[in-house]
Amino acid sequence: KNQVEQSPQSLIILEGKNCTLQCNYTVSPFSNLRWYKQDTGRGPVSLTIMTFSENTKSNGRYTATLDADTKQSSLHITASQLSDSASYICVVSAQSGAQKLVFGQGTRLTINP
Amino acid sequence: DVKVTQSSRYLVKRTGEKVFLECVQDMDHENMFWYRQDPGLGLRLIYFSYDVKMKEKGDIPEGYSVSREKKERFSLILESASTNQTSMYLCASSVPQVGRTEAFFGQGTRLTVV
Lengths: 113, 114
Known about the structure:
The structure holds 2 protein chains of 2 kinds. By secondary structure, chain A is mostly beta strands. Chain A has strands at residues 3-7, 10-14, 19-26, 30-38, 45-51, 56-59, 62-67, 72-77, 86-94, 100-103, 107-112. Chain A is built from no helices and 11 strands. The N and C termini of chain A lie far apart (41 Å). Chain B has no helices and 11 strands. Chain B has strands at 4-6, 10-13, 19-25, 31-38, 42-51, 54-57, 64-70, 73-78, 87-94, 104-105, 109-113. In chain B, the strands form 2 sheets. In chain B, strands 2, 4, 5, 6, 9, 10 and 11 form a 7-stranded mixed beta sheet that branches. Chain B is globular and about 40 Å long.
């Protein structure tokens, strides 16, 4: 069964600190993995995309890694800001005729001043 | 920028009412999706459509139906709303790109059934 599991479920850190969110998946055949950011009351917005051949991808203070062998991804946030408070959702796309997106349950990140 | 617009941000409906949630995208995307999002369960796919008048059931289609008469518009219908359908509903659209497909989401509709 295709599954995406994220950890931790929630995380609280102080402004300026770094943090890392984890994503493990069992989706086959793998096409790509995206991290989405969802602000409260809004729809998710894509942060990064990782394909099979990519190990690391950065987008400003966000850095995503992918280990296709162990089927793990991480999202590292550097020098956190209050605006980083959101849910972060890992989404894995299966390479099939009809698009299949498998969503993780998300990590709720709270940045405190 | 891709824009996916959902007709309402908040809705309150009574049990047994017929409810229409509308979604419009402006980028000529073939694929459109309806998800519901509940705490602890993440996003779950209700229905998706890959072309006009084409639809396929997702993981939790029971109690819902959809309509896609035009490429840009995808409607979710609750034939007889029930309290367990209280949720956040998210519409998304995408165009298939090998290895790079991205779903663009609307702002969500928070539906409360009383």
